[in-house]
């Protein structure tokens, strides 16, 4: 069973009162030509004692931006932490994107977590729980371990516990949901203390924020994940090819070469 098999109705009771964005994982729209540059853009050195790949800020639109905030090439990604297509791209792209493109100062990468399935809510809350410095590494871990961490979706007893979490008050609902699906343990093994994780999940405002952003992105016309833009121009990935080489080629056409 893939994460898409965990339908909206299966766990909707656990996300009562949270309206998630109506988007599809992997759905494709008409392609828009990505920007191109005749000349390669020179690398941009970071401030003394700093690294662009470790420079992360939160954005006004609910995302996290890694790299040079003034980079001439701006990559924007709308991704779902429960989407296998996003996971395929993320698992391939994380290291070269961070180590080669972000580190060069020529490219910035803003990731906006788009909740399209109920399990996106606790996953996003946990990815954000450790602060901006750990956001990208934790997202990378979700994507790199996507198949193994989602094996729980074949466990009937775990799904029943997840379903039962919907009967709990808001401050306990997502704690129970995330523990039933093994998310708290997964993040604990990657440095996020259990008590801290449970405290973040118990804050209903954090979950509501994730849902509100999903509605915002959907209203702005984002209807699939991953959705990618380079300098405002949409980059369409062909489903018949590996995603990272396609995105890398688009970054290089934009001047990151």
UniProtKB/TrEMBL annotation:
CDD domains: DsbA_family (cd02972). Transmembrane segments: none annotated. Residues 1-19 form the signal peptide. One of its GO terms (molecular function) is isomerase activity. Keywords: Disulfide bond, Isomerase, Oxidoreductase, Redox-active center, Signal. Gene3D superfamilies: 1.10.40.110, Glutaredoxin. Pfam families: Thioredoxin_4. Residues 62-237 form the Thioredoxin-like fold domain. Belongs to the thioredoxin family. DsbA subfamily. This is Protein-disulfide isomerase. It comes from Tsuneonella suprasediminis.
């Amino acid at each position: 069973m893939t994460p898409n098999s965990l339908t909206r109705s299966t766990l909707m009771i656990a996300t009562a009162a949270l309206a998630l964005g109506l988007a599809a994982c992997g759905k494709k729209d008409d392609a828009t030509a990505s920007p191109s540059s005749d000349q390669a853009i020179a690398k941009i050195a970071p401030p003394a004692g700093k690294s662009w790949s470790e420079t992360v800020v939160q954005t006004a639109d609910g995302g996290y931006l890694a790299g040079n905030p003034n980079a001439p090439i701006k990559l924007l990604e709308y991704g779902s932490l429960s989407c296998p297509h996003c996971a395929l791209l993320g698992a391939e792209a994380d290291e070269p994107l961070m180590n080669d493109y972000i580190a060069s100062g020529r490219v910035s990468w803003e990731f906006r977590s788009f909740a399209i399935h109920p399990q996106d809510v606790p996953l996003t809350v946990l990815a954000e729980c450790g602060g901006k410095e750990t956001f990208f590494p934790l997202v990378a871990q979700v994507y790199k371990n996507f198949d193994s961490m989602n094996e729980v979706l074949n466990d009937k007893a775990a799904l029943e516990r997840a379903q039962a979490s919907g009967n709990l008050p808001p401050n306990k609902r997502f704690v129970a949901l995330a523990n039933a699906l093994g998310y708290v343990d997964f993040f604990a093994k990657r440095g996020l203390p259990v008590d801290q994780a449970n405290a973040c999940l118990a804050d209903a405002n954090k979950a509501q924020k994730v849902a509100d952003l999903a509605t915002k992105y959907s209203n702005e016309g984002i209807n699939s994940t991953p959705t990618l833009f380079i300098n405002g121009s949409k980059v369409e990935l062909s489903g018949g090819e590996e995603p990272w080489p396609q995105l890398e080629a688009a970054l290089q056409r934009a001047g990151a070469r």
